[in-house]
């Protein structure tokens, strides 16, 4: 019999949060915290060594700040601090069910096989696909995309494919409402997704174009290993890819309209729309038995696979709350005073350093991002600069994910390609990460001067 405590507690945590929004009831926070604690404890034996050490260290540090009865209760309630963002993380992957069932990725493979004739085209198509499909399916899209491009023709260009996938995927951190990064800044800073999206999408295409131009300089032809798809097959593939794009745009439009009409936070709307649209969309492809099987697979495999990020995000919220309860806002102000940082344009580079350096030592970016968001969002010094803080945090998060050998993305692709995560992150993506951050910082400076 498969263990059910991990997926059950995870879904109950996210589900209780959503129910409490519409039907507030006493002790809702305590109940969400209880399910979060059960999830944290049940996942712990299955986690990798580094997350285990981080979770233990953060838990001990948070508890050590105040071991009184009130301190223990504050730590317990702090476990649900990130419940709104975790609801996105838990329920958005349901959208992968109809995407898989509709065979959309197989049609993307047809497009790849027809149009990719040179290495720069392979880079561009892989980047676009990782950024667009990954923006909805999250990290679950990466193994699929890797397998789709792992053909005899593309196999000699493994490093190129890895670079393209990583770079395309992290760019979704800037704009995708389905990503935990965007959810985090929306939860803590006084910004809306409609404010972030235009800037994020423009920066995404600018950075993507810069990467493509760099790869184009060393482009070479790719020998073919199989015949081109016939015209009918290609036409059908184009139709299905356009259909996929249309549905994703429709889902995003529904989220935007629902947020406007209901007045609910986008953090609440996104998981609800993901749940409903996943079911409705799946009805076009699945029988009742297939649908039941897909949801069972989601419960048995997909949710248990969330353990590392889910557990880190739960404990990061509790630790960040403990810091805030014990004067972290004053510590931040003291640090900024010591460094004479009174302007947000000076703070953004410091945010980069505070995220990159710990990440190189093994600290997950989720932890530092959460702590920075919790503490900086309450700082009166930057009360009018939340939009710029949001962009600074997102750009630093992207750069950190690219260069950290311990990020889940680099570890996943290292396992798939059987290469070192240090090679992938530091050797092949450090330069791109610096370019990406400089472009984002330049945009922040321009927007700040124009405000």
Automatic annotation (TrEMBL):
This is Citrate transporter-like domain-containing protein. It comes from Planococcus koreensis. The keyword Transmembrane helix applies. Keywords: Membrane, Transmembrane, Transmembrane helix. The chain crosses the membrane at residues 21-44, 50-67, 74-97, 122-148, 169-189, 195-214, 241-258, 264-285, 359-377, 397-417, 429-450.
């Amino acid at each position: 019999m498969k263990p059910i405590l991990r997926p059950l507690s995870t879904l109950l945590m996210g589900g209780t949060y959503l129910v409490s929004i519409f039907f507030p009831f006493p002790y809702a926070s305590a109940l969400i915290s209880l399910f979060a604690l059960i999830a944290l404890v049940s996942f712990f034996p299955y986690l990798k060594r580094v997350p285990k050490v981080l979770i233990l260290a953060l838990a001990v540090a948070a508890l050590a700040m105040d071991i009184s009865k009130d301190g223990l209760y504050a730590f317990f309630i702090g476990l649900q601090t990130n419940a709104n963002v975790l609801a996105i993380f838990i329920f958005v992957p349901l959208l992968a069910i109809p995407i898989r069932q509709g065979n959309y990725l197989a049609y993307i493979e047809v497009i790849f096989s027809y149009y990719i004739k040179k290495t720069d085209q392979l880079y561009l198509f892989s980047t676009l696909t990782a950024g667009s499909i990954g923006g909805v399916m999250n990290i679950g899209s990466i193994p699929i995309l890797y397998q789709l491009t792992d053909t005899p023709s593309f196999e000699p260009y493994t490093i190129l494919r890895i670079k393209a996938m990583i770079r395309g995927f992290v760019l979704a951190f800037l704009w995708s409402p389905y990503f935990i990064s965007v959810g985090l800044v929306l939860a803590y800073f006084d910004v809306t997704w409609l404010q972030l999206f235009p800037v994020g999408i423009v920066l995404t295409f600018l950075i993507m174009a810069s990467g493509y131009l760099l790869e184009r300089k060393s482009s070479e032809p790719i020998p073919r290993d199989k015949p081109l798809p016939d015209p009918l097959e290609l036409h059908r593939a184009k139709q299905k890819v356009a259909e996929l794009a249309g549905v994703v745009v429709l889902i995003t439009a529904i989220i935007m309209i629902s947020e406007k009409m209901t007045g609910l936070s986008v953090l609440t709307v996104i998981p609800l729309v993901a749940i409903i649209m996943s079911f409705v969309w799946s009805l076009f492809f699945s029988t009742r038995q297939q649908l039941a099987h897909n949801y069972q697979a989601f419960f048995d495999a997909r949710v248990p696979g969330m353990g590392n990020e889910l557990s880190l995000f739960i404990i990061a919220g509790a630790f960040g709350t403990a810091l805030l309860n014990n004067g972290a806002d004053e510590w931040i102000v003291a640090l900024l005073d010591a460094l004479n940082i009174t302007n947000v344009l000076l703070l953004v580079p410091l945010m980069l350093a505070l995220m990159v350096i710990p990440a190189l030592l093994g600290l997950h970016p989720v932890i530092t991002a959460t702590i920075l968001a919790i503490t900086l969002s309450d700082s009166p010094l930057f009360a009018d600069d939340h939009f710029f803080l949001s962009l600074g945090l997102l750009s630093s998060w992207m750069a950190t994910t690219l260069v950290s050998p311990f990020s889940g993305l680099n570890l996943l692709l290292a396992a798939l390609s059987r290469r070192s995560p240090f090679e992938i992150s530091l050797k092949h993506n450090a330069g791109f990460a610096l370019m990406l951050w400089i472009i984002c910082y330049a945009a922040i400076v321009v927007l700040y001067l124009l405000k």
